[in-house]
Give the backbone structure.
Amino acid sequence: MSKCFAICGGLLVLAVGPILGDTLTPPTQAVYSSSDNTHLFLVQPGVFEDSKQTRPCSGTLFRIDREKVAGFVSPRYVPVWTTILENALSPIGALVADDGSFVITVNDYSANTDEKTAVVIYGSQGKKIAALALADIFTPEAIATIPETTSSLLWFFGGNLDSKGSVLELTVWGGGTLGKPTFRKVRINLETGQMLAD
């Protein structure tokens, strides 16, 4: 059985319809959970005032311990690590491994295709393993076909881990139209950040 990632508390598929007409609003604090609800990843967005960053974007991974108190199961959130994220403002989403060994942030508010924030892999103690730009995942021709909104490009449609927990498989834009999209799979070695052949 593959270890699944969760985005936005369990949704693996990015819903395209509701965000087509989005407006660029400042990102807010966000929480992402592993699919088995044993880990949470809290993202604090970066803050800019007068075009200067006054607080960097950061992320904290928590382990959820469950304690029985007076006959009730009560969660206890234990910080595992905190790190400054590569994103200037905030990732659009995050994926959390069930065992907490990896956290992957996806996309960035208002990032261009050259910025290495399309996929960022964090491992033990929040250490950055790899940071990929869209150009590392798509050809220039493919990037030109990706639909976009005010805040982001609609290229990511879900992800999971292989049974060994060492390979990330992403479902990404493959072409077509929003009404009839096609998708393709991209595989990334989580320990090295290297793209794997199809």
